[in-house]
Amino acid sequence: MKDQFGRTIDYLRISITDLCNYRCMYCMPEEGVCKLSHEDILSYEEIIEIAKAATELGVRKIRVTGGEPLVRKDVVSLIRSLAGLPGVEDLAITTNASRLAPIARDLKEAGLKRVNISLDTLDEEKFRYITRGGKLWDTLDGIQAAAECGMKVKINTVLIGGFNVDEIPALAELTRKQDLELRFIELMPIGHTHPFGKEAYVADSIVSDYLSDLEPVHREDGVARLYHLPGAKGKIGMISPLSNHFCDDCNRIRLTADGHLKPCLHSKEEIPVRGLHGETLKETLRQAMYNKPARHKTLSYKSRSDSARNMNAIGG
Q: In what order do the strands lie in the sheet with 271-272?
């Protein structure tokens, strides 16, 4: 369906947990988060009911997120149920890939088409530092396993000045021989980005300073501006939520793990949907889609997000 500004809202992101086995500095505090009780988290049955109502209103793309979605038990069965909903054309998951390799083929067979994998550095020590204990090779093994079983792979790299900007060429090399999309994303002032100073907030245009031979390619969908290196199999994307926001093209709403709709990532507005059923649920979803804000107010590191949640509790 269309919102009040004429945008087609056909994309639902579903957070199934706020927990994660990493503690990435821009996402979570070092001590982790206060664990919600089992009763506070949407059951798989509730998630399917809400997703089904959303597809009946025109949602065609669903992404499962966290926290880290693969820490939740029996996630393969959830993927299978979501893939079976009438109208779902694209089903994806966002993950740090640390637990992906052993179940990648199971997820593919259940109906998962794409994976977005977080990877901010190719240096083992820096990876351990930014994730507060993660193992780089677990993520690299997950990337390889997803590709080998035929899933489309996108890698999300958050640009952080003073940390990984110098690795832009090395990260871009991943696209030379692999048919994947590497996306450089601007750091957003939301939640636990406090370890970083203003120098960390760099525009994604810095990528072209390191990759002068980038060639633009046609963008099929999504918010990334796409390029490729000459002769490369894969693509390079740039996503600029701060320097060149894409609110006019935003087509998504989000469902939190505890049952609230967020029409905008950077808005404090949340609409409870847990416990709603039938036409009441559909009408609440319809109103949330229609009243989606025109744009967010987060335009620089000086203006922090209005969101009342950290990224781990939203799912990106």
A: 215-216, 225-228, 235-239, 181-186, 152-159, 114-118, 90-95, 61-65, 11-15, 252-255, 260-262, 271-272
DSSP 180-213: -EEEEEE----SS-TTS-GGG---TTHHHHH-TT
Model confidence over 21-45: pLDDT tens digits? 998 888 777 766 667 777 899 999 9
pTM above 0.85, yes or no: yes
* CA-CA-CA-CA dihedral for 104, 155, 187, 161, to nearest 10: 130
Q: Which amino acid is at 74?
A: D
Q: How far is it, in rounded angstroms, from Cα 236 to Cα 182?
A: 5
* Domains of the chain: residue spans and CATH: 11-153+248-313 (3.20.20.70)
Q: Judge contact between 212 and 236, C-beta under 8 A.
A: no
Nearest to 63 by CA among 296, 265, 288: 265
State the helix-helix crossing angle for 278-290 and 44-56, rounded to 10 degrees: 60
